[in-house]
Design goal:
The protein has about 600 residues and is an alpha+beta fold. It contains 17 helices and 21 strands. It is about 35% helix and about 15% strand. Strands 7, 8, 9, 10, 11, 12, 13, 14 and 15 form a nine-stranded mixed beta sheet that branches. Strands 2-17-16-3 form a four-stranded antiparallel beta sheet. Strands 1-4 form a two-stranded antiparallel sheet.
């Protein structure tokens, strides 16, 4: 006889009957000291979990899940007053009140209070015009426009001239500085394109990009700019006027660049309503007064950046940490909110009053900060340290929660939740209630996974800075250098390139690699064209360019010492390349040497 197959629903019904029977036969007795009643809801978490206290979104609360034996769908309010749930849902209830206590403590009460609705009023989206069919270069030029390159050219040439004048009599005879020629905008575009391209084509040493060994050769670099010219620009690359140094500003070497990009990031794009704040760390192990040690970061030692990102990863605002003794924050703000709160207030300043929803980790969260942001129509959610001032101590200090159980209190428009996973984690939010809902996933036993709504939102929205930090490290051109400000400047310029990718990705599906490659290739091509136009204009102004049909290339006559003498192509040399040729223009003054391509370019249409 064939064996009947029972459905999952029938099996669940049998298990539920057995469970209820066991419960009725073995009713547990609970004393006041056990803190056990059915006033508050708790959820149980699965076997996979992560440390909730370290502040990284990927590690905070990923494993704080509750499970249910049958899919329920929708949202379930687990606030106080609900009946005790069956073991089928794996949800229990605990109580931390002594006899006669109503759960109140200061502003905190044992009630589920809905937060104030915050309808988003910000004008999010791209704020700058683009062509009808924008290319990756068009997005990059939203940040690297002509004014940016002119600024780099001005400061680099200024620094090179000052260095050469100060060291002219001590420079070695073959020093690259003795052959320095002022850089032009086209050259700076080519240089920056080649430099950023080193993040894609990674080699141990810069000289290897110009190597002729077939095993490691990269002909693109040789054809684009000479090694000597590239290293000269790299050595003299500068970002500020040394005659206007502010000794009180530790970032004075790159202050104009920092200010420019801070403003540009905010002007180009306004983020959507979900944003987060966290730290980035630019690796640096050299001596510097504001170097930080963060063991949870991959670099561990480096320069710390407070970053405000959209959940997509777009960096909207940032502050570079320069130590405790600085005037970055208002003393009144620090006194009211503390340094972490002052960081949040300064980063969020352009977005306050527009009903943004902010996610932070436990270093920033506090009751004064949540209250301050609420006064400016801004919601906040994050993990919080249990010893923060103003939290309900009765809940914060409670011990004995089992894995998956949580407690909460509401007050002042906030909710405080104590949740136990593999360890205790505490939340403070002005956006949520103590509700649990299905995530759409299932655990190893095929049971629907359920989490607090607060935890689900935190996991989804807190990862913006980590996403940004991870993406920028994939194709980084940063190299070892003795000058910290060049390392930091490289990071900021790569951040502009990454922001351009995020904006492009919103319209066109393209991989990060393909975008970077296309943007760099177009930038170099544009720079080379501008170099040619500039050189032609200079030659025309000097009177060396004549109509092509009246000038002819001729072989350079033999001399007593050389049977086949050569000259350098004057145009190639002007573009930072050395090319020896056998021909010259006998009709131009001083009979300059030309290669075939440059001869046609310099004489065409004149």
């Amino acid at each position: 006889m064939a064996r009947r197959r029972y459905s999952a629903e029938e099996i669940d019904q049998v298990l539920e009957q057995v469970t209820l029977s066991l419960d009725s036969d073995n009713e547990p007795t609970v004393s006041e000291s056990d803190f056990s009643s059915a006033d508050e809801s708790v959820s149980s978490s699965p076997e996979r979990s992560a440390s909730p206290e370290i502040g990284d979104a990927a590690d905070d609360v990923e494993g704080m899940e509750s499970t249910e034996a049958a899919a329920t769908g929708g949202t379930e309010d687990t606030s106080a007053g609900d009946e005790a749930m069956s073991l089928k849902s794996h949800v229990e209830a605990v109580e931390v009140l002594a006899a006669g206590d109503d759960g109140s403590e200061g502003i905190w009460v044992k009630q589920s209070i809905a937060p104030t609705a915050l309808p988003f009023t910000g004008n999010s989206g791209l704020q700058m015009p683009l062509p009808d069919h924008p290319t990756p270069l068009d997005y990059l030029k939203l940040f690297f426009h002509e004014d940016f390159f002119e600024y780099l050219v001005t400061e680099t040439n200024r620094y090179a001239r000052a260095f050469i004048d100060a060291n002219l009599h001590t420079l070695p005879a073959r020093s690259f500085a003795r052959s320095w020629k002022p850089v032009v905008v086209g050259e700076m575009k080519v240089f920056l394109g080649l430099y950023l391209n080193m993040g894609i084509v990674n080699k141990p040493e810069i000289d290897q990009y110009w190597a002729t060994d077939p095993v490691i050769a990269t002909p693109f670099y040789n054809r684009t700019m000479s090694r000597e010219r590239f290293t000269s620009i790299l050595n003299f690359l500068h970002f500020a006027n040394n005659d206007e140094v502010d000794e009180s500003d530790k970032l004075t070497k790159i202050r104009p660049l920092v200010t420019f990009l801070q403003n540009r990031f905010q002007q180009v794009y306004v983020p959507k309503e979900w944003v987060c704040i966290d730290e980035e760390l630019v690796a640096w192990k050299g001596r510097i007064s504001f170097r930080q040690y963060i063991p949870s970061k991959r670099a561990r030692f480096g320069m710390k950046i407070y970053a405000l990102c959209e959940d997509s990863g777009y960096l909207h605002n940032f502050i570079i940490y320069t130590g405790k003794d600085n005037d970055t924050f208002s003393p009144d703000t620090v006194k009211k909110l503390g340094v972490p709160g002052a960081v949040v207030d300064k980063l969020m300043d352009p977005l306050l009053g527009k009903c943004y929803k902010l996610f932070v980790d436990n270093w920033y969260s506090s009751v004064p900060l949540a209250t301050h942001l609420a006064e400016h129509n801004t919601g906040v959610c994050g993990t919080v340290r249990k010893n923060r001032t103003g939290l309900p101590k009765q809940v914060a200090k409670h011990k004995g929660l089992q894995k998956g159980q949580f407690l909460y209190r509401c007050g002042g428009g906030m909710i405080f939740i104590k949740l136990h996973d593999t360890k205790e984690v505490h939340f403070l939010s002005t956006l949520h209630t103590a509700t649990v809902s299905a995530t759409g996933k299932r655990d190893l036993q095929r049971r629907p996974v359920r989490k607090l709504d607060l935890v689900q939102d935190y996991n989804k929205k807190m990862g913006g800075v980590d996403k940004n930090d991870g993406m920028i490290s994939v194709y980084t051109a940063a190299r070892k250098t003795r000058k910290w400000y060049k390392k930091l400047a490289t990071h900021l310029m790569e951040q502009a390139l990454l922001n351009a990718y995020y904006l492009h990705k919103m319209k066109v599906k393209m991989s990060h690699y393909d975008f970077v490659k296309a943007a760099i290739k177009s930038l170099i091509a544009e720079g080379k064209l501008e170099i040619t136009e500039h050189t032609t204009a200079v030659a025309a102004a000097a009177g060396t360019a004549k109509p092509l049909d009246t000038h002819f290339l001729r072989l350079i006559p033999a001399t007593a010492k050389k049977e086949k003498p050569q000259k350098m192509c004057v145009f190639c040399y002007a573009n930072g390349k050395r090319r020896d040729v056998r021909q010259m223009c006998a009709d131009c003054p001083k009979n300059p040497g030309y290669c075939l391509e440059c001869f046609e370019t310099s004489h065409r249409g004149k």
